[in-house]
Amino acid sequence: MLAFLMENAGTIIVLVILIAVLTAIVIKFIRDKKKGKGLCACGCAGCPSKDMCHKESNNS
Fold first, then answer.
1. pLDDT at position 25 over 80
2. Helix (H, G, I), strand (E, B) or coil at 56
3. Distances (CA, A) of 21 to 17, 26, 39, 40, 59
4. Nearest-CA neighbor of 33 among 51, 58, 19, 54?
5. Can you give the residue ranges of every domain in the chain?
């Protein structure tokens, strides 16, 4: 088992880094969504999908 880890250390390190980066991105998307922010940085004014991101409640 130790030999396998030593032979593949570079691949394992890259994999761990990629998993950490992807996890951080997903967590940021979830936090932004809970805060009501969109997932893109371009703004929502001209976005054809703005209704899917920011559904307004009609509880007036």
1. yes
2. coil
3. 6, 9, 17, 18, 39
4. 54
5. 2-50
Alpha helices in 1-60 (DSSP H): 2-7, 9-34, 50-53
Q: Amino acid identity of 33?
A: K
Question: Is the CB of residue 12 less than 8 Å from the CB of residue 18?
Answer: no
**Assessment of whether the complete model's pTM goes beyond 0.85:** no
Task: Please provide the average confidence, as pLDDT, over all residues in the chain.
Answer: 81
Q: Once rounded to an integer, what is the mean pLDDT over residues 26-52?
A: 76
Residue whose structure tokens are 């969109």:
38
Q: How far apart are CA 25 and CA 45, in angstroms?
A: 24
CA distance 24 to 45: 27
